[in-house]
Amino acid sequence: MNRWANFLLLVGAPLLGAQCTASNVPSLKVPSCDQGTGSVQYDKSVPNGQGKFPLTQVDLCYTNNDIKITFTAFEEINFFYNESHTTNDPLYEYEVMEAFIYHGTNDPKSYLEFEVSPNNVTWQAFIYNPSKVRAESMPFDNGQLKTPIFDGLVTSTELDRDAHIWVSNASIPLGLFNVDDGEAKGTQWRMNFFRTIVSPDTFPDQGLGAWNPTNMSNFHMTPFFGKVLFV
Ligand SMILES: *[C@@H]1O[C@H](CO)[C@@H](O)[C@H](O)[C@H]1NC(C)=O
Ligand SMILES: *[C@@H]1O[C@H](CO)[C@@H](O)[C@H](O)[C@H]1NC(C)=O
Ligand SMILES: *[C@@H]1O[C@H](CO)[C@@H](O)[C@H](O)[C@H]1NC(C)=O
Ligand SMILES: *[C@@H]1O[C@H](CO)[C@@H](O)[C@H](O)[C@H]1NC(C)=O
Questions:
Q1: Which keywords fit this entry according to its UniProt record (predicted)?
Q2: pTM for this one?
Q3: Which atom of ligand 3 is nearest to the CA of 157?
Q4: 51-92: pLDDT as tens digits
Q5: Are strands 188-197 and 226-230 parallel, antiparallel or unpaired?
Q6: Which ligand 3 atom sits closest to the C-alpha of 154?
């Protein structure tokens, strides 16, 4: 073994240590909608899942053409959104629930980001994030879907202010990920789910939560995406 191999072994150990959190990601099995749903709940904050976060649930299933996602925000206080916002406005500065979705198994450089706000407005784009962690001075670009409703990316939203619950259903066409109609069974995905909380008093300082919390206040870290199998 030469000097360099030894050196690499030495520096390799801490690097692998740092990646441990990311490689040990959660997984979820998702059935077809006539069989039920696959569900996750989370109540840990970003970064690192250190703090308590309002309980959030995501239920998924698939049909012939779509991924169906139900986002449920429990313990919602503010229902805070910007009334002037419409499709693809910066909803993410306020309160949103989000899914990052990639068809494949590796840590992706490109994935769909989908967001819905308490007033049923959506933001949707394919992200290009070649550093996989939104590294400074690396490209971080997106291509937005301009006609989501016509595309079949449709939501419905109900707020129950007394019960502090906000539910948004979303249909996300499988075709966006080159999965042909009826071909979803057996496909493998990487996904993460997020929620932001902020009130008029604390704006723009948000609380962040995630299914698999990233290790920085940055959702765009794809080594943290969980593994999802359509069964
Ligand atoms: C955060 O996770 C990324 C991706 O696994 C890793 O490269 C980085 O070293 C981690 N950073 C910290 C501060 O732990
Ligand atoms: C809502 O957004 C508009 C345009 O982006 C901005 O001018 C306005 O200040 C925002 N309102 C609130 C309540 O944050
Ligand atoms: C929400 O938006 C969708 C389009 O994405 C629309 O069909 C629906 O009627 C809207 N309203 C509610 C209350 O869900
Ligand atoms: C979401 O979909 C479920 C299942 O189809 C339905 O029971 C529920 O009423 C829907 N909620 C909203 C807000 O559209």
A1: Signal
A2: 0.91
A3: 14
A4: 999 999 999 999 999 999 999 999 999 999 999 999 999 999
A5: antiparallel
A6: 5
